[in-house]
Amino acid sequence: MPRGDKSSYTGKQKRQAEHIEESYEERGVGKTEAERRAWATVNKESGGGKKSGSGRATTHKHAKSKAPAKTATRKSASSTRSARS
Predict the structure, then answer these.
(1) Domain total for the chain?
(2) Would you say residue 35 lies in a domain?
(3) What pLDDT does residue 3 have?
């Protein structure tokens, strides 16, 4: 399969890439650059071409294009020590 061949992608991935590409073009990015960015985004979110099987094991987490969740803050060690005294 030659580089750039999109036959190994699902229909959903192709639609996502097309939508993302249109969005970039609306913002003034050139056609080729918009297409490149769109497929890079699809690859980042889905891990590339078709992935089959519901029991498919993954050994790493894929990065999502969402803001990270806020984490709870911990009390400092000094405030806990003073509470014990």
Answers:
(1) 1
(2) yes
(3) 78
